[in-house]
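Researcher: Sequence recovery benchmark, item below. Answer with residues only.
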């Protein structure tokens, strides 16, 4: 099945919000709790296995992304990127660092770490890999392995300006609260397509900073993999 790219997902109204689902408890979102969860994973199934439908002419390709959870004084924060506007695929979108598996990569973890270092300049010495989430298949036929990791503070990023226009952090507690998960549905070519979003707006007690606050529209594959992470933690 062939589908065009969705260029303005923010314009698609939300059909529902999952405020009825429980948030993951803060006690389950600590480094120690995550280490324990990945060391002894529950029996569970991902909610979302893929985007649904594929662009024509795309052969399956392996890829990996990192979910870098930065250890901060107020809890864990997920490090995300905004892709540059000139890229051929997913221009301007919010993404997890990662990319295609290369021949020299020994594992999905190796791919995720290499791509994170190339895109963000984040040294591997700051990263503690915890484990994997199930493979997620995108409409462009990438079979993406999400790798979850803790990131120690004290690093300095050096962004690849050709791929990444911005890096920012979102509190993990916000992302693991389904009241912030929105479902979207739109019509195309006589059928329907749906996607998930988790819009986040940075905030501050400083009035001047509030005027400059920006909304980050986290959606598509990134939001879907985060939703699966929610299901993993809540199982």
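Model:
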């Amino acid at each position: 099945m062939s589908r065009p790219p969705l260029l303005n997902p923010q314009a698609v109204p939300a059909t529902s919000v999952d405020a009825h689902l429980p948030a993951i408890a803060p006690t389950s979102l600590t480094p120690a709790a995550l280490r324990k969860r990945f060391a002894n994973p529950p029996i569970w199934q991902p909610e979302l296995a893929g985007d649904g439908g594929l662009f024509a002419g795309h052969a399956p390709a392996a890829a990996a992304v990192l979910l870098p959870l930065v250890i901060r004084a107020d809890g864990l924060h997920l490090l995300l990127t905004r892709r540059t506007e000139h890229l051929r695929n997913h221009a301007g979108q919010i993404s997890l660092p990662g990319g295609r598996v290369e021949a020299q990569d020994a594992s999905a973890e190796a791919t995720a770490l290499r791509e994170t270092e190339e895109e963000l300049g984040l040294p591997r010495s700051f990263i503690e890999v915890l484990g994997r989430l199930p493979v997620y298949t995108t409409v462009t036929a990438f079979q993406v392995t999400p790798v979850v990791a803790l990131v120690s503070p004290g690093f300095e990023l050096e962004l690849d300006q050709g791929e990444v226009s911005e890096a920012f952090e979102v509190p993990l507690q916000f992302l693991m609260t389904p009241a912030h998960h929105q479902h979207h549905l739109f019509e195309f070519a006589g059928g329907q397509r749906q996607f998930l979003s988790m819009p986040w707006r940075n905030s501050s007690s400083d009035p001047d900073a509030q005027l400059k606050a920006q909304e980050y529209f986290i959606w598509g594959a990134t939001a879907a993999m985060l939703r699966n992470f929610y299901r993993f933690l809540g199982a």
